[in-house]
Amino acid sequence: MTESLATDPHLATPSGKPRARALGIPFGGRPGRWNAITDVPGLEVGYVTLIDGSDVRTGVTAIHPRGKDQPGSPVAAGFHNQNGNGEMTGASWIQESGTFAGPVVITNTHAVGVGHAGIVAWTHRHHPDLTRAWLMPVAAETWDGYLNDINGHHVDESHVVAALESARGGGPVEEGSVGGGTGMNCYAFKGGSGTASRLVGYAGRDYTVGAFVQANFGDRHELALAGVPLGEALADDNPMAEHFSAPPGAGSVITIVATDVPLLPDQCRAFARRVTIGLARTGTAGSHFSGDLFLAFSTANQGAFPPSAAALYPSPEHLSQLEFLPWGHIDPFYEAVVQAVEEAVANALVANEDMIGRDGHRTPALPRDRVRDLIARARPGAAS
User: Fold this and answer.
1) pTM score over 0.90
2) Which residues contact 79 (CB under 8 A, 6 or more apart)?
């Protein structure tokens, strides 16, 4: 790895794994300093990665919208269900109130309840005043049962708490087979955790839109990057196709979109709907057997939404106020969502290596050199 690749956070992860831009893949928009969801001020991400023996390939991802010190301050939020063969707890309250409070946890399908319980345990340990009322934790999942012993209960409450406590902000984020994405597959290549961000200038300042994906979706033939169809050219070495009798493309994708631009809850829902376009740019048509669930939130307007604990301590009657982006100026932010999601998926694919897991099942990594060459031929001058 060259020195520039090793030191440029747009080209490499903290551990030195290449990111999509290291292959010369062109992306639109203006990325933030880290090109990660942690470019949103105050937001923190943490991981616990579980790789043990031949059967354990799983983990936990934790996201604190306002940081670990402010889990009781709700954010404006919106949820979109592109395909419901999956789970994100707390979605009913998000749809009802347009808000949620506390951290988000992403893990494997059979550990989503553990993720929910772990959020309660962490909150009660560090913020017991909040658990005197009630919590509506947001825990989401994708299926890692091809590589991981998903029925072995390898994720427990302590792992969720550890991921929440390890979270950090204001810096780069590791990608690939880490956290909840450890055992995941994308387009029948090794997938997992990916992130990206975009800056949008508005009213004299830059706002940030960040995306995080747990990418576990897509059929091999669908794959496209930077508008270049790659699936047919990379159709070889596909052990998953030989293993599954169910329709290909199953697995799921969870996407979290965060921003510091002031938004109404309906505008957050509109951001969440734009995730579908970013995913589609990578080729997927959306599988019936894939849970494609998206959450978008704004960290602006702090204090405008009362926490659940406030129900125990009623305040005098009053009116709250919100600042929000005028609808007529929202399009550049939609574009930022699409661009960040597209690049986050590409990063999850590129920052990976082959993995062998449960029962000897193998998932190949995206062949980076072949991808670089295919994009260079299709888009002369784009890749180098």
Assistant:
1) yes
2) 88, 91, 94, 95, 269, 272, 293, 294, 295
